[in-house]
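Standup notes, protein team

Yesterday: finished cleaning the Azospirillum thermophilum set.
Today: SAM-dependent methyltransferase structure.
Blockers: none.

Input for SAM-dependent methyltransferase:
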Amino acid sequence: MDAESIRAAYRRYARIYDRVFGVLLGAGRNATVAWLNRRGGLRILEVGVGTGLSLSDYRRDNRVVGIDLSTDMLRVAKERVEREGLTHVDGLLEMDAGRLAFADGSFDVVVAMYVMTVVPDPAGTMAELERVCKPGGDIVIVNHFAAPRPGIRRMVEEWLAPLSKKLGWRPDFTLDTLLDGSRLKVESIETVPPFGLFSLLHCRRAAA
């Protein structure tokens, strides 16, 4: 995966994303925002904000900044913010998740939903998520991870792998690949619908 392949894929998806993926991936997104909404007064970075499907669901006493690599997806998100009057959204910025233009420790929580199989450099992106999260802060990831053991699902994932550039995501991406070299502490991981194909991963940055 490279940046231009990602932009091209989501240029195709931008106007249909909400109707297709909004429904398919809604359970994981809702579970993540519900977890975040247990607390208020947070500064939250949403990496891969896409069309902004989750933005209206955040507590209004949390401040949200969203970034995405796709100009086309961000255009839809900005239209949503203006249409719905989402004053708790502080900004929507075009940015590479592997090179975040924020100071160290800028956010209480960093959330990445359905993003890590898309970014060109997952390890570099994880390091950036940790860097911009405050010491002791939370990093929450929702993602598809390849089946850990051989079987039909793993076979399908490996069969689809060569199509990654067309799909816009990596079907054979593993949890070990994501966490390799990371200093984050895994607090919990649970499967979310549909069909248990996605996982909600909660990590914590070490306190200073």
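Follow-up from PR in the comments: The chain has a mean pLDDT of 83.
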